[in-house]
Amino acid sequence: MGKPVSITAEVMLMDKWENYFADEGDIARIPQIEVCEFVTNLEKHFSERPLRIWDLCCGAGRHTVELARVGHEVYASDGSSKAIDLTRRWVQRAGLTATTSIADMTACPFKDISFHGVVSWDSLCHNTIDNIKKAVEEVRRHMAPNGLFMANVMSVSSMTGHHGAGREIEPYTFVHNDGHEAGIPHHFFDEDRLRNMLEAWEIVVMAEQVVSYKDTSKDTPRINPFSYSFWGFVVRRLA
Ligand SMILES: C[S@@+](CC[C@H](N)C(=O)[O-])C[C@H]1O[C@@H](n2cnc3c(N)ncnc32)[C@H](O)[C@@H]1O
User: Fewest C-beta in 10 Å: which of 64, 70, 73, 87?
Assistant: First the structure.
């Protein structure tokens, strides 16, 4: 097992994401149904309009655009300048508005905003456990009372397939050696460690989606439409 990721390594890590977004063919364009359903529930949870929603680690902006399209006040951040550029351009092309910022997941760049909802899809787990915990605490600090946070993180059930591959840099965190996510860390959770991370929140729902891989050939993830095993959760900030 190697050393935990350092500050310098974090800067280099964001270079990996810049490379990832350089190939626009890899970019996810269709919003996750889970994110859309979460926002429908958020609309029932709060009567105020528009809702202030933070898309944390927004990538190329598929959820930012969707949330703005349904009329919410959207804030989007990502550590990759390329991702933020893609998001800004997509929002503009769609004739919508959203506030965007390049920022590490551990520091909210939208200082005076308290959010009704925060979404973070396929992102939190790309870090070491200490940084993931910092990011989750940062979300809690910027959440309105009763606000809801929805995210997914990779499950240890994925470790039997491609997603346990690579170099273990700390317990449960692996950096891929090759493939289009080379150099990018993946942290895997089991239920106990996920509950432990969320202990400051009320857990509204926590569910594991388990996918069993039969074909684990190296290049599969690039074209694999069947997702990996993950834990999804919705948690509420206590008033
Ligand atoms: C797999 S993409 C998911 C993007 C988006 N949430 C979606 O569902 O399309 C992961 C995103 O996390 C961002 N990311 C990874 N590590 C980060 C960090 N430490 N701080 C901020 N963003 C980070 C990457 O730049 C990338 O946009």
Answer: 70
